[in-house]
DUF4270 family protein
Amino acid sequence: MNQFLKRSITFFALPVFILIIAGACDKDMSVMLDNTATNNVGVSFIDSFTVNTSTVQLNNMPSAGTGSVLVGKAADSRFGEVKSTSYFRIGFSSIANDIPEAAVFDSLNLVLRPTTNRYYFGDTTKVQRISVHQLDQVLESKTLTGGIQNTALPIYVTGASIFNDQTFDYNPVSIGAASFAPRVRALDSLNIRLDASIGQNFFDLIKANDLRVSSNENFRDYFKGLVLVPDEENTAVLAFNDTVQVKINYSYTGTDGFRRSGSKILSLVDRSLQFNHIAYDREGTVFEPLTAVNREMQTSTTSGLTYVQSGTGVVAKLDFPSLKEFLQDENISINKAELVIETSSPANTMYPIPGSLMLFVANHEGVPTSFIPTPFGTGTVQQAAFAGGNQAGRNGRYTFNMILYMKNLKSTGTYDNTSLYLSSVFPGTASTFSTFNTAFIAVENARPKIKLNILYTKFR
């Protein structure tokens, strides 16, 4: 054969052969492991499971002893208004009467210091105002029971607590207030001057060795505690450390003739009785019907919109109606399973998003009774960390490994008649109960962008 013609045929045939192979691969997404007629095995991928979604309001959220004095108010057109009022009891760091004999009372002030992470939620460019009120009712924790029908308790209720919807009576007349610009990164402390007559009374009782200040139990009966109330015009919620101090300031002349000053310190003597009362107002939003009574809204009524919010206890409910049937196929073996949640909420804004999410398992009554654990781990809660999006339009996302969930759903019946609740993380951190971190699920074609991706082997 002519050498030139031979080379031309070879040059032409090679790309055609490559195209034929590529075309064949494009027609079949399965990867065949064996072509024998008696042992035909294929690995396939599916991401088209129907996901039924709704937004759920959780009840009985414990908010005591979180270490965070959360106070303020913030608003957004999508979720409405959120507000936190903080209650706590104070007592003497030292009961001893160690005030110098010649001392005179000067002032009484409350000192608040930001948390280490300097948490805030909302617009901190505007002046905020906090007022201080005196409690009229003793703070007490309560123990939940299952009631007459012995209903299961939420897994996050582990004992007696004070819950975020509880309130205690306090005097509506404030005993002190402060207006301040919340420069969160620069704020060292917030100093609020309190009613001098209350401070003078404390001072006189200590000097007189009065029985009312002889123990913190006696003092609690006399002075029940304080409440921090945000102004209705506030635009941000701030977190302060529970190392609260109330200072009874005094001055005296020392033996050297110089003027000196000192303070008698009151602090939180029982941190388990410091709690944050959480309130929300969704009027004017698509979530207005969602309340502690009407606890669930289908996303079909919100154009596919749903969200997760710490503090208020809002979670996204997920159901997979066809998954159980799919897994009953005895010729199916799951190799990999991931639940991918896309969020339209950007990071690094005035409304922080959760750094991680988790999945509660709720029983047929809608009570979270367990959680999705880390696969093949030690039974710890699986936390899906936030992965940021990009400038090309990719949304941020949270990804869960669902392989163990699939295994139990297929073989043990552990998850029969249950739903999954997408929530901020609660074990090992108080962020579920002491922040307002919020993530809205991205929407596409009026449905949340939530996909269950399964890679499986099919034995045919």
